[in-house]
Amino acid sequence: MQRGDPVAFGPYWETVRNECTVDIKGDEWMSYLCDTNNLCWYMVPQMRDAILRLHNVVGNVVTKDKFLVLGTGSSQLYQALLYALSPSESSHHPINVVAAAPYYSEYKDATDILQSRLFKWTGDAALYDKDEPYIEVVTSPNNPDGTLRVPVVNSKVDGKIIYDLAYYWPQYTPITYELDHDVMLFTFSKCTGHAGSRIGWAIVKDIEVAKKMIKFIQLNSIGVSRESQIRAAKIIGVICDGYQNLKSIESDRLFFYHSKRLMKERWEKFKGAIEQSKVFTLTKYPTSYCHFNKDFSEQYPAFAWLKCVEGIEDGESYLKKLKIRTRGGERFGVDAKHVRVSMIGTDDEFIELCTRLSNAKRE
Which regions of the chain carry the CATH code 3.40.640.10? Predict the structure, then answer.
């Protein structure tokens, strides 16, 4: 339960596996180049059309008058954005990169691993008090705790904001607004569950930022796999076709309906297990109106964020004794009493998780 591997949606895709089949001939997609008339020259037209169509169906973000930048997962795009939003190479001071704690555990490592002179990880955005340029990463819904986030830095200097919207999809949270930010980051893995395809995209307002991102990706990987793009475009097309043909197919055949129901059922079982153990407390989420599903709904995050009751100081170590592998709070910039548990593993893993948590007792 340590990783965020989204294999929970596998059974759904097994039911529509034939509709998702793609056929790529041996002589197709051989060139480095793809669509040279497009700013993002390595993105196949089918991928671009599929992304725009998906956001139009869901209604979660504004794509008009924006530029699409494709990446090998959102991890590559994150680093491309740090490069694109940083001051010029002539600057002697790297720009500060911050995120409000608890923040995604990989931000720090992904920022620092390059040992760049352009940017550096500075920690918790809520504690940032420097009058220096900064980049704030806002993940909403947040990983690890599922809360909805806004920028929190209070500085005299105007900062750059990266909105990581990996979980702003109907199975995890109500679609309350059509978001319209300068930089918005998405990943195919958390939308559909196809993490192995390594597809992510950024929706960017400023063409100069988009150009710098594309330059980074060109030097880093010379674009994105065409085969992955073709497969991703096909899968997204199956999702969108379902909603356009809503009157002719059963609701359980619709991906977001199916996956939201799955997440809801898991959260109900998980809350029961936590209540029975009385060892942890859970984050509480508000009920909001979802403009996509046309109903009021709670959030069903991809991760559960647990806090130990009094007497237990290290949640990760406690759960390790129960043979449950998790990520402790210190990885996310908070204390060890907190711990993150994945809700998107296999059915067997989830059932076993609930069983072990139900039997957990206070030490």
Answer: 21-243
